[in-house]
């Protein structure tokens, strides 16, 4: 019997804290040895010479097969995870949405049905709490025990949003039960007022999507949620920060010693409000919430990512075909909110983060993998390369130069917001629990091979 099932040979291993040359020996889905000149007899060998060997990417914010505005996001757990795998991501965490009047278990059952037997890489599931009462609060400890340890609340969107009472009660209950509360921070009333005003004024083009959701509406909601977390004495994660207005609130709270966590996404680092002005309804491609911001926010966002005000980069992957986007041809508020991004996250962050000198390789691993694993209770099973950890690994070639275009991607949608972006560096082999699932940008894995990840209490960073 051979010592290893798989050996990754001759690469430069990069973790959140170290960079060193070594081989990795994999057996029964785990890394079992890290060393020099490991025995390859009888093992499958991946030649990683001249390449980086990173922990597989973790995208902790996706929306596969998600109902929104009378339609569904166009990637399901099969197509969406194939795209993720081809892009070097080995774990996603998606959001199960609680339906009004239904239990949290109903939500997790619905999402497990969408994911189980379909996903090609591992997946965790957050819960979006939309309709809170005492029964739901009492359900939380058991749901957390089952591995659904994070709960997001929307502060905006009709039908999904919760009030401050729900936020404070959820913060307290989730924290005492060993989970983590999260918010989508935008001020509902500001957006509602401006949307109605623009409707009356006949302003329906995609740019008004951005103008109806000003950065201060995000900053206000983030600041309010942080104050509620302080009152509850609970940690809080603010997802998809887009601007200085919200990250300045996080920075202040963290400086005061409060456990506030922040996420951002490539679109808020690389795209801007100007994209909404593209002609022929092209601006609809970028309709997502929070909206893309004035580019003057970019330096602040990159700095926040570098200095750990923001700890990780997710995508908020929620694609819709242009045909679906046309539901809002007359009025921006009817455009389904969301855009694709799951497949390009690793290459974009390497190119514009590492290759452009904004941060180093170890920080790249932290923001694309390790920190999300810690915050969302998956570490050290996921998010690192260590003896005993799942063999979720991406072999990454830093010298590949390509131009992003829709036709090379596997996302089930007819555009990419990053069309024409120059990429330096790309994943060449993606390994999920010891099995090669993608090679040179093509999927070679198996439908249904992904497993549900039982997540535990957060490690705050
Ligand atoms: Zn989202």
From TrEMBL:
Instruction: Please describe the post-translational modifications of this protein.
Output: Carbamylation allows a single lysine to coordinate two divalent metal cations.
Domain Amidohydrolase-related residue range list: 52-437
Q: Which cofactor does it need?
A: Zn(2+)
The family database entries (InterPro entries) matched by this protein are listed as: Amidohydro-rel, Hydantoinase/dihydroPyrase, Metal-dep_hydrolase_composite, Metal_Hydrolase, Metallo-dep_Hydrolases_sf
Q: Which gene encodes it?
A: hydA
Q: Please report which protein family the annotation says this sequence is part of.
A: Belongs to the metallo-dependent hydrolases superfamily. Hydantoinase/dihydropyrimidinase family.
Cellular component GO terms, alphabetically? cytosol
Tagged with keyword S-adenosyl-L-methionine: no
Q: Which UniProt keywords apply?
A: Hydrolase, Metal-binding
According to the record, the signal peptide region is: none
Residues modified as N6-carboxylysine are 152
Q: Which domain of life is it from?
A: Bacteria
- Cite the CDD domains for this sequence: D-HYD
- Where does this protein come from, organism-wise? Clostridium aciditolerans
Annotated GO MF terms? dihydropyrimidinase activity; metal ion binding
Spell out the protein name for this chain.
Dihydropyrimidinase
Q: Could you say which EC number(s) this protein's record lists?
A: 3.5.2.2
